[in-house]
Amino acid sequence: MIKKIFNIPNLLFAAAVATAFAGADFELKFPAAYLAALAAFEIAFIYRLIRAKTKITAALDLYSVVFGFFLLWDLSVKVFKVLPYNLLPPPQNVFHVFTVDYADMLNGFFQSMYLIIVSVGLGMGFGIFFGLFVGWHKKAREAISPIINLIAAVPALVYAPYIVAIAPTFRSASIIVIFMGIFFPTMINMVSNVQNVGQKLIDSARSLNLSDFSILIKVLLPECAIPLLGSLRIRIATAFMILTMAETIGADAGLGYYVKRWVAWSDYTKTFAGIILIAVVVTAINALIGLFERKALIWVKSPN
Amino acid sequence: MSDIKLEGLCFKYDDSDYILDNLNLEIKEGEFVCFIGPSGCGKSTLLTLIEGLNKPTKGSVLIDGVPVTGPGGDRCVVFQHYSLFSWQTSKKNITFGVKQAKKGISSKEADAIALNYLAKVGLAEYANKYPHQLSGGMQQRVAIARALAMDPDILLMDEPFGAIDAKNRMQLQDLVLELCENEEKKRTVVFITHDVEEALYLADRVIYMEPKRIKEEIPIDFGSGRVRANLFGAPRFLQLRNHLITLFYDNADENMGSEPVYL
Questions:
Q1: How many other CB atoms sit within 10 Å of the CB of residue A30?
Q2: Do B77 and B68 form a contact (C-beta atoms < 8 A)?
Q3: Partner residue opposite B82 with nearest CB, options A200, A210, A222
Q4: Domains, chain A, ranges and CATH?
Q5: CB contact under 8 A, A219 and B85
Q6: Which candidate from B72, B87, B97 shows the least CB-CB separation from A222?
Q7: Residues lower than pLDDT 70 in chain A
Q8: In the prediction, which pLDDT does A296 show?
Q9: CB B131 to CB A200 under 8 A?
Q10: Tens digits of per-residue pLDDT, A133-168?
Q11: What is the pLDDT of residue A304?
């Protein structure tokens, strides 16, 4: 029991809370949001402790790092003064931004998510659809595959500035760039999956009396496309990278734009907040995809 | 009606030598025929021709006098590997086949048929499992259940138990015999194997193939009672078994340039 209360994470938590109330020779916001974040971590930590039957080492290590990080951050600003406070703002000021700027941030979040969902959806949908037919049709495959490979070899980030420059609106530009970044790799994967489907599977489908078109839609599509959903995580990470990059060129809203705008104004407190927001959003999306994979794609693990 | 007739059947791929050369054979309705032979003798190719997955180069496969031009609802294949769809549960795999065989059947009826056949192969409680959650033997039972649920007149089996351990193989052999013989309608079965005992145990007639052609037809005459324990010690069984094994050895001799081969 004593071990569950007097352990390193709890001591670091207490130290971090104490440091949050320490004064400094510059303007400090009241640390309400920061303390709320610390408390959230502490609750998560306590929950792990209570739930864990035997081994709590992993939780102890993880939360030692978490609280240690915040403590060190706060100390390096207020006590050690590693950098001027406007270059390295204290955590309480950074977290305070969330309580002030949440409308702006939410707006940016929805703008970015809208672009990501639309373009990843289109990119994967078209990639799977064209990949299916191109992979199936030998002539089409031989004619189109080399060209697709050539285009896909160029990272979308390279021509993003050009597309932002020629597209009528920033939205359409982002959608085009992300689409290109998602469509080509998906299509290449799909073509190779279709190509590598065993003759045995096609034979058994044909022996079930399926027409060529039904085999394509009812057998090859699920057989080859479902494993691609496993790459959703990478695709969304790529999309985020492209989007935030594109947003730094010519957007008027969005998560990447938020960071870029405050960097331009040298407001690093808000910059920090924007970066934390992106980290949280991407992590949350990854967690959702992980959940989806575990629940819905159990058969992906061993596609025979 | 489901008798199969091979007439001067020849097959080769575009630029290869003949894989099958002038096969002539008649398989009667309700007969259980095993094709046996060394690997590469063309027995699996023959099955794809009967199924209609490949087209004969010369000659034809006739079913009730009608040439086979492609896969048909009267025939069903059980392959050695990889015939279940990995993204569907066992039940879904079977209903998929049933719906394919009987157009317009309601999902409810198809489900009922699927569950019925899963119960027959002893997998009632595995209806909602995916193939990768089942052992190889179980997957093969589902494949057999799917083939039978589609209610074909002719069942084609291509080394269906080739990758299954000995104990499970015996159970599955008995299952196939039981399901093919005890149903209202007697199905014609064409069964490919390279296991001599399996062929003798299952078949009404064993057909030994050497590369490209049929070497010998052996009618099996143990009488109707096929009891494994009695059969395997019976003189007639041992005689046929030795005969078939000799055929395999002769073939091996030829392939190795008449040097005796000790296996």
A1: 12
A2: no
A3: A200
A4: 2-88 (no CATH), 100-300 (1.10.3720.10)
A5: yes
A6: B87
A7: 1-3, 54, 296-304
A8: 67
A9: no
A10: 999 888 989 999 899 999 889 888 888 888 888 988
A11: 37
pTM for the model stands at 0.75
Mutate to test the interface with A, among B85, B130, B150 (most CBs of A within 10 A): B85
pLDDT score at B174: 87
Can you spell out the DSSP letters for B94-135? Answer: HHHHHHHHSTT--HHHHHHHHHHHHHHTT-GGGTT--GGGS-
Closest residue in chain B to residue A301, using alpha carbons only: B132
Spatial distance between the Cα atoms of A17 and A34, rounded to a whole number of angstroms = 9
Whole-angstrom Cα distance, residue B97 to residue B151? 10
Residues of A in contact with B81 (CB under 8 A): 200
Dihedral of CA atoms B153, B110, B53, B6 in degrees, nearest 10, equals: 0
Buried-exposed string B128-139: b where 16+ CB fall within 10 A, e elsewhere: ebbbebbeebbb
Q: List residues of chain A with CB under 8 Å from any CB of chain B.
A: 198, 200-201, 203-204, 206-210, 218-219, 222-223, 226, 298-299, 301-304
Quick one: pLDDT at residue A299? 57
Instruction: For residues B21 and B12, give the distance between their C-alpha atoms in angstroms, rounded to a whole number.
Output: 9
Of B141, B120, B158, B109, nearest to B129 by C-alpha is B141
Structure confidence at residue A303 (pLDDT):
41
Quick check: B59 and B213 in contact, CB under 8 A? Answer: no
Residue in A with minimal Cα distance to B81: A200
Encoded tokens for A185 = 């790799």
Q: Where are the beta strands (DSSP E) in chain B?
A: 4-11, 20-27, 32-36, 58-63, 66-67, 75-78, 154-158, 188-193, 205-210, 213-219
Q: Residues of B with CB below 8 A from A227's CB? A: none
Token look-up 């992300």 returns: A178
Nearest-10 Cα torsion for B35, B38, B44, B45: -110
- The residues of chain B scoring below 50 in pLDDT are 258, 261, 263
Question: What φ, ψ does residue B216 adopt, rounded to 5°?
Answer: -155, 145
Rounded distance between C-alpha atoms, residue A247 and residue A227, angstroms: 31
Strand B58-63's sheet: what is its strand order?
Answer: B20-27, B4-11, B58-63, B66-67
Shortest CB distance from B131 goes to which of A204, A207, A304? A304
What is the structure's pLDDT at A17? 93
Residues 6+ apart with CB under 8 A from A206: A215, B53, B71
- Chain-centre distance for alpha carbon A57: 28
Note the ipTM here: 0.76
Interface of B with A (CB under 8 A): 48, 51, 53, 71-73, 75-77, 79, 81-87, 96-97, 100-101, 130-132, 150, 156
**Crossing angle of helices A232-250/A156-166, nearest 10°?**
40
Locate B215 and state its tokens.
């070497």
Beta bridge partners of B210: B213
Please, are residues B164 and B136 in contact by the beta-carbon 8 Å criterion?
A: yes
Rounded Cα distance, A255 and A244, in Å: 7
